[in-house]
Amino acid sequence: MTPKYLWLVALVALYILPIQSLNCVYLDDTILENVKLLGRTMTGFPLRCLKDITDFKFPKEILPYIQHMKKEINAVSYRISTLALTIFNLKGSIPPVTEEHWERIRSGLFDQVRQAHECFMDEEKENREHPHSEDFLTVYLELGKYFFRIKKFLINKKYSFCAWKIVTVEIRRCFIIFSKSRKLLKMTSGKIGKGNIYKPGKRHRSQQVYTIKPPLVDPRVTVPVAAGFGR
Asked: Which protein family is named in the record (predicted)?
């Protein structure tokens, strides 16, 4: 290769990594944007829907794993995003908002899935020689069960207006919890050395599990207390 082309190779090598990492940067912003979109459906929660509030049993036991899952966090992001989009793509629905806003939610979730997939593929390329851990498989299965309970609730309620109000609040809450877990992981990843492997029950001082409390909502405003949504 002639010297005059070497600078081009250097530029390509310099920019490949930042371009790949942008997928993950945009993903965090997209998740927060979808939290806002879902939040707009919470206004004007009808009193008649209170009787349908159910506990979807969000698997809080997976949070310690997620908060220390440095190599597989993007795979979890993709899992949550695809499961959420599947829920909002169910047919026979009675959306709790205008059709225009409903399409914005779906479009936002589609962007989230796309970015999560790109971020996940970048991660897979880096870790292709390492199989997924048992912790990841636990998280993967528990998330599947959680979203299945949500889907079953919608089916049993025949995709009613109230059912969608409740499900939208629950998925928004799920996104908030997961977004906080991603942030905590970024904050602690620099403090946890590469030789320190997280094992539940055998924690380093630098590996303390953070307790994430879901946001409380006052029912006297217009929205039911989050306790009914799986706390």
From this structure: Belongs to the alpha/beta interferon family.
CATH architecture for segment(s) 19-229: Up-down Bundle (1.20)
pTM score of the predicted model: 0.70
Q: Are 198 and 63 in contact (CB under 8 A)?
A: no
Helices marked H in the chain: 3-39, 63-66, 73-88, 99-126, 134-156, 161-189
End-to-end Cα spacing for the chain: 62
Amino acid at 147: F
- Domain positions in the chain: 19-229
Give tens-digit pLDDT for 7-62.
443 443 334 444 445 657 788 899 999 999 999 888 778 899 999 999 999 999 99
CA 197 from centre of chain: 24
Hey, what are 65's tokens?
């794993």
